[in-house]
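user: Please supply your own:

assistant:
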Amino acid sequence: MAISTSAELRALAFNCSLKPPGQPSSTAAMLGHVRDALATHGVACEIVSATGFNILPGVRSDEGSGDEWPELRAKVVSSDIIVIGSPIWIGQPSSVAKRVLERMDAFLSEADESGRMPSYGRVGAAAVVGNEDGAHHVGAEIYQALNDLGFSLAANALTYWVGEARTSGEYRQLHPVPDSTTDATRMMVRNAVHLARLLKNAPYPPKLART
């Protein structure tokens, strides 16, 4: 089967910095570079600052009055690639990243007319920044969560930068960004776009009925 490379794709990136929207952050800088890399493949990417929304705690798609997650959920299910951007805090993904992932837990009990989770056919990836060791651990936590929630992971689905421990240097202050990180970002994006196009052409099979 010939794979179309012209299928229009959409990407959504969650900026899970603890900082409020509009305040400079290294996570925002990293996701800006991810967006630029996606653009070279003809993929439009929207970056959402998660702290700009009232995402209530819970594991349902709508937690009631005041919950702004349903708006974000609609963006997720209309996108082909989802990137979770997180700083490293206490060696872990940020609490904001965990909140975003927790809310997508609802996908486990939701299905389309073919019995597939809303996340099926969507590609997940992670972008991590910090001044502590732990990028691989944070990436692993995000990977596992995305996989559990029904997202597909392409090869090398992580880009990251970790600065020297106990210093004030930040990713957003780097000019230029190290080649190793730039290369990782480009590879992550290239593979994610490739997988997303494959899944557009060949969706996962429907759930088999119990007999």
